[in-house]
# Entry
Amino acid sequence: MIEKINTLKAQIENLAAADAGEVEALRIKYLSKKGEISLLFNDFRNVPAEEKKAVGQALNELKTLATERINALREGLAQDSSAVDGLDLTRPAAPVRLGTRHPLSLVREEIIAIFRRLGFTIAEGPEIEDDWHVFSSLNFAADHPARDMQDTFFVQRSPDVLLRTHTSSVQSRVMESSKPPIRIICPGRVYRNEAISARAHCFFHQVEALYVDRNVSFADLRQTLLYFAQEMFGPDTQIRLRPSYFPFTEPSAEMDISCNLCGGKGCSFCKGTGWVEILGCGMVDPNVLQACGIDPAEYTGFALGMGVERITNLKYQVKDLRMFSENDVRFLDEFTAAR
Ligand code: DAH
# Structure
């Protein structure tokens, strides 16, 4: 019996298997109910009593050895099989493809950062508005054409609920709810009932700025505009102000900057003039201050409003406004470097 045990022991120590099937065959050969080791256990009752202790111990050791050896073979194969499948767990993972910031977000953030450096803080208001905040408080006469159905999307009539047509509505909300000094910048989406084309869309984005305090002057407005233009478009940028009209400002102006494509020499972008228009501005009309609960005898203010798409076009020469809302990755990918 001891001899038989020793022979099996030598065999088991040298076991080898090429695949899981062979390991299983070895398990059956040695460890199953009718396997060689089990048969030895069956024969154990024939062992003379005085040998039982030594034989029993040797048999148990043999069984443990076989179990461990076969398990080791199985585990060794499991590790190798990853290589067999062509899976190399030490390889670096495939790179994660990051998205890009939308060009309008990039430009909006840049505008906000410039005004932040001047001490402006962000204010926001609802996109679904009432007539008071979009028109009446801003000194729009009852028959002003901007209230026309053709421009404004109405959610409901009398009382009117509408999609704001400009971010100037945030001005009146902030003036109503806070006291000067007020220095805010209001980024947001606005809606107008326009046919969609390369040059117009039914929604777009604006950034509005408002500064109300004692002794705010047109010179403050002009200096703020010059700082903004030079930070946004480069230190050589020039500005010019042309008289204009908005119901909520008096006097009102439109600001042009020297064309940043030709440096002011005249090109097709600026239609040969050397200047491109970028925003509207003016001194807050005393009627607006009054309507929003601020005493126009004590306070003055300036306001300005610009289209984010317009500024983005100037910076990146996007020819067709529709590109901004189509989410074509080939377009968006062009802004990876600006991220
Ligand atoms: N709200 C104007 C628009 O939608 C833009 C604007 C012009 C805003 C002059 C202003 C401003 O604050 O002073 O076209």
Notes: The longest helix spans residues 52-84. The first strand starts at residue 121 and ends at 122. The chain has a mean pLDDT of 91. Residues 114 and 227 are 9 Å apart (CA to CA).
